[in-house]
Amino acid sequence: MTLFSDLGLAQPVQKAVDEAGYTQPTPIQAQAIPVLLEGRDLVGIAQTGTGKTAAFVLPLLTRLAASDERAGPRGCRALILAPTRELAAQIGDSIATYSKFLKLSHTVIVGGVKPRPQIKRLEPGVDILVATPGRLLDHAGSGALRLDKIKAVVLDEADQMMDLGFMPAIRQIMSKLRKTRQTLLFSATMPKPIRQLANQFLTDPAEIAVTPQSKPVERIEQTVMLVERSEKRDALRDILADQAVERAIVFSRTKHGANRIVQNLGKDGLEAVAIHGNKSQNQREKALEAFKSGDVKIMVATDIAARGIDIDNVSHVVNYDLPNVPEVYVHRIGRTARAGTDGIAISLVEMDDRILLRDIEKTIGFHLTDEGADLHCPKPAKKPQRGQRHRGGGQGRSGGQRKSATPGKPSAQRGQGKPSAKPAEGSGNAQAKRRPRRKPRRSGGAAAA
Ligand code: AMP
Question: Are 58 and 17 a contacting pair, CB within 8 Å?
């Protein structure tokens, strides 16, 4: 068993880790920290919730503390790029925790807020800068920030940064940095453009993958409910009204959808907050705070706003809409079952979403519906593109072949488990009733029946 004390962290960093109550490094920490302390580049394939922030922050602090170099005015010594304001703020919080016994400065620079206070904070120079790529480039372009002293750069959630269109900004930033630097790239998935980015900007990187690519963590119990669109509101209310829900994140595909869900829940007597890109930074922070503190136990979010957000004790993730991209499903449900706890993920699936569901099942490697179920997925004309919604071809709602694996019943499968050997009662060719069970039942692994 590896202990933190075996890893060679600086004593003040070790002390902060002890104070944080961590007794043992997570697998990515145990593997990445020694490599990073040697100064090597690293590609880390890891989901949020695996402890990857500490995996790069702890060695970074150790290395910065070992040198008395200064950033100099408007300079910085280490740069961490993150896709969203929330993730950047969270990384900033982690740095504050882990560096509390060190004299190292850090600041967080994100878009969507006034640049002036940021310029002031950058003026004296900082040891660690956490930033979203767009705003960072603005400051570098205006001369408010110098990039020439950066000795270590971390690209966190690289695949999400790519999805958000930050690739050109990242490439621009990387090409402005000095050649002799340490570069770390973390991503939950490794699509080709991210691999190319790593090949271009990293030198002989160590590669560490802590969970198989695109596989959800094991402790998440995953459930699917087949519903009509008109039934979704009631289904969601019934799920969230359950006593077992301690803290839930509901995912909506759109910002307007997220607002509507919050309104409807409010009418049904369930208080919820929304977090999405149309909200001001202030509103987002307030909503997040209310959710984190437990004042409000339901948060409705879009993918971009919620990605990477680290909130403990999220007991349930509900996919009100299935995501268009299968990997996003893995990210979403990764909001629960963090730091060793269990979690439940429930997806409301409309008949039109059958192909999306099949794509997700292919990605995670097992059936969420019962094995052998015939959902009659129409074949797409061509391979669906990212961001393109499958509409179910010629067999829409009015089609006569509405069949379901689980008529009237949700199907549950524990992550990484084997597909259920026995289809649930009524599966196969039975006519789907598609009424959701009001309370999805927890199941030990085989299809819930
Ligand atoms: P991350 O994957 O970086 O978002 O971390 C997920 C959560 O795990 C955070 O709440 C961390 O505080 C927590 N964490 C990180 N490392 C450890 C550890 N070694 N032991 C216990 N909890 C940890």
Answer: yes
User: With the C-alpha atoms ordered 325, 387, 374, 412, is the resulting torsion angle positive or negative?
Assistant: positive
Q: What is the pLDDT along the chain (449 residues), one digit of tens a residue?
A: 789 999 999 999 999 999 998 888 988 999 999 999 999 999 999 877 788 999 999 999 999 999 989 999 999 999 999 998 888 998 999 999 999 999 999 999 999 899 999 999 999 999 999 999 999 999 999 999 999 999 999 999 998 888 778 999 999 999 999 999 999 999 988 888 999 999 999 999 999 988 644 455 667 889 899 999 999 999 999 999 987 889 999 999 888 999 999 999 999 999 999 987 777 777 888 888 899 899 999 999 987 777 667 777 888 999 999 988 887 888 888 878 766 567 899 999 998 888 889 988 888 888 887 654 545 444 444 433 333 322 222 232 222 222 233 333 344 444 333 333 222 323 222 223 333 334 443 333 322 22
Domain 4-209: give its CATH superfamily: P-loop containing nucleotide triphosphate hydrolases (3.40.50.300)
Listed by start position, the domains of the chain span 4-209, 220-416
Provide φ and ψ at 247, rounded to 5°. -155, 125
Q: What residue's CA is closest to ligand 1, atom 14?
A: 51
Distance 218 CA to ligand 1 centre (A): 17
Looking only at the bridges linking them, the beta strands covering 411-414 and 220-226 are antiparallel
Name, in order, each residue with C-beta under 8 angstroms of 426's C-beta and a sequence gap of 6 or more.
406, 407, 408, 409
Q: Which CATH superfamily is domain 220-416 in?
A: P-loop containing nucleotide triphosphate hydrolases (3.40.50.300)
pTM value is 0.63
Ligand 1: which atom is nearest the Cα of residue 4?
A: 19
One fold for 4-209 and 220-416: yes
| Token pair in block for residue 161 | 């940064």
Residue written as tokens 């699936």? 349
Q: Is the CB of 310 under 6 A from ligand 1?
A: yes
